[in-house]
Amino acid sequence: MQIEETGREILDTAYAIHTQFGSGLLEKAYRVILAAELRKRGHVVEEEKSCGFDFNGTRYENMFRVDLLVDDAIVVELKSVARNELVFGKQCLTYLRLLDKRLGFVVNFGMASLKDGIQRIVNHL
Questions:
Q1: Sign of the dihedral defined by the CA atoms of residues 43, 20, 50, 56, in that order
Q2: 3-class SS at 55?
Q3: Cα dihedral: 82, 117, 93, 3 (round 10)
Q4: Number of neighbouring beta carbons within 10 Å of residue 42
Q5: SS3 of 97, please?
Q6: Exposure string (b/e) for 75-100, b if CB count within 10 Å is 16 or more?
Q7: What's the CA gap between 112 and 35, in Å, rounded?
Q8: Computed from CA positions of residues 124, 1, 15, 67, in that sequence, does the dihedral angle turn out positive or negative?
Q9: CB-CB contact of 101 with 94 (8 Å)
Q10: CA-to-CA distance for 120 and 54, rounded, in angstroms?
Q11: What is the pLDDT of residue 63?
Q12: Which of 87, 92, 96, 122 pairs with 70 at a CA distance of 20 to 30 A?
């Protein structure tokens, strides 16, 4: 499956979850449900993946945790807050750059309309 198709499936699944549960759950609940639903669709999903990176010959371990890494290709950073912050996109872009991935999404389930809570982040696409 191509990365764009996988991205659409991630967003379609997020919309279905938001339609069912609305914006009242904690982030962990959305993460667990989204991961399970994506696995049902045949995706490999790593939750709260601890990540590190190399720089100038030094390995920096356990520097951050990615909420979801889908098919070892797409970073999904989840939020459940009432408003979006600029730092959310920067956080996702940092993960993309340090993991050398190309596509990520910030999905803020805390928004009344999920459309307002989705941000697509690309790294040199």
A1: positive
A2: strand
A3: 150
A4: 9
A5: helix
A6: bbbbbbeeebeeebbebbbbbbebbe
A7: 22
A8: negative
A9: no
A10: 26
A11: 86
A12: 87
